[in-house]
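Example 3.2
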Amino acid sequence: MGELLLHWAISATSIAIVAYLFPGIELRGVGSALLAPIIIGLINATIGFILKIITLPISILSFGLFFLIINALMLQLAAAIIPGFYVAGFWSAFFGAIVLSIVSTMLRSLFEKQHGSRRTKF
């Protein structure tokens, strides 16, 4: 349960950082920042997963670049659902999703280096 809360906090922080750095994404309030990771996670786990399975041949042919388009569309869908979370358009969502992935990866990596990984490695 603690790892889930940690993952959620890192995701919320990542979204807040991207909204601050990236002009095409706007986040109004802490509530939106805390709700966004939950909704984005649910969208990616359902609709995003199905779209990635269906478009797998296209993604393979494009060396995975088509996944970026799907991620941008999922970010736009999340912005349409979450009050106080706005994405200016497709290109803002496209580049915002890339920046969000980078920031999130950096924060997770930083946290694991500082506190050590709790995951068991087989």
